[in-house]
Amino acid sequence: MRWWRVVGLLSGTSMDGIDVVAAEMALDGEAILLRPLGDTTLDYPADLREQLRDALPPGDVDAATLCRLDTHVGQAFADAARLGVELAGGEADFIASLGQTLYHWVEGDRALGTLQIGQPSWIAEATGLPVISDLRTRDVAASGHGAPLAGVLDALWLGGAETQVAVNIGGIANITVVGGPEPLAYDTGPGNALIDLAAHQRTGRAQDTDGALAASGTPDEDLLKLLLDEPYYALPAPKSTGKEHFNAAHLDRALTELGRPIDDGDLLATLTELTAATVADACRAEGAHRVVVSGGGVHNPVLLAALRRRLDVPVLVSNDLGMPADSKEALLTALLGFLTWHGLPGNTPGTTGAAGPRILGSITPGRTALRLPEPATTPPRRLIVRSAATN
């Protein structure tokens, strides 16, 4: 049994910076063993962060701007990869990158395309290591949504007889349902996207740190009702969404329809309640016996309290079960890369809607010739998380 050292990189829909994780992984029969080695976040430079946010719809991006953004994000990911190699003790076997999603093209119930920027060649040049990237497009080409890909990790990690729902609250919130005939996953709607947007518009802050603004107000029931009338919430799974949909124009329409002013605290309280309500509704509809939450949303006590208030089942943070909440998405990236490296599918068709299992991504060679291991012949059925000190 060989242990592989993997660096996982991604920047989520919040576009704050790049999550970095280093981990050791091994195949042991039907199990994947995972030992986290460390994690960190590399913030985007302020000007790059603003350029990325300006590029989101309804922004208008020409080819020159897209080329520059792709290059600058790739260079930032290269810096993040160096940090990941340091976390791995100075040596790694390969790097997996989910890049920065700039546009997710969905019409009706179909995903027609998806664009992640951050050229992997910058990472390979900076580290000399192979880079597995472009991990969503093959799933979309196979009639899937390319998101959420967390279903493959959650199904291996939480699989069992009892119905559990894993919730990730980033810019967009998504759930994975395990314990049924097959895993199910989908985006429930905004996680922090509208909360961060309103915090920035009203106060100039990038986010509502610790839910302080929401805690100062009271949810406005009229505005909440308007927001909950959004048709996306009633669409059947599989489904995916992004800031192409839940953006400033979306919020402005609801505020215009409200027809009266709303103060900062009440607006943030309402948007926080919206995220809790839509996530809780999805968990309840899927018959969850237990809910396990990860992502940046776990640091918002107002959001967690609202979610617990709306559910009558245990709501845990993934740290309680040994999975780091802050780095879970980066560990997912590492896992996806590890599966591709071993010739194994990285999607779970029941979660993305793809026509079948697919080996995901493209591989950019490092400084030397590419040498892949023999493809694995036993599909993994479990993910076992161990501490770094465990042999």
Automatic annotation (TrEMBL):
Its EC number is 2.7.1.170. ATP binds at residues 12-19. Keywords: ATP-binding, Carbohydrate metabolism, Kinase, Nucleotide-binding, Transferase. The keyword Nucleotide-binding applies. SUPFAM superfamilies: Actin-like ATPase domain. GO terms for molecular function: kinase activity. It catalyses: 1,6-anhydro-N-acetyl-beta-muramate + ATP + H2O = N-acetyl-D-muramate 6-phosphate + ADP + H(+). InterPro entries: Anhydro_N_Ac-Mur_kinase, ATPase_NBD. It is an enzyme of class 2 (transferase). Pathway: Cell wall biogenesis; peptidoglycan recycling; Amino-sugar metabolism; 1,6-anhydro-N-acetylmuramate degradation. Belongs to the anhydro-N-acetylmuramic acid kinase family. Catalyzes the specific phosphorylation of 1,6-anhydro-N-acetylmuramic acid (anhMurNAc) with the simultaneous cleavage of the 1,6-anhydro ring, generating MurNAc-6-P. Is required for the utilization of anhMurNAc either imported from the medium or derived from its own cell wall murein, and thus plays a role in cell wall recycling. This is Anhydro-N-acetylmuramic acid kinase. The lineage of its organism: Bacteria, Bacillati, Actinomycetota, Actinomycetes, Pseudonocardiales.
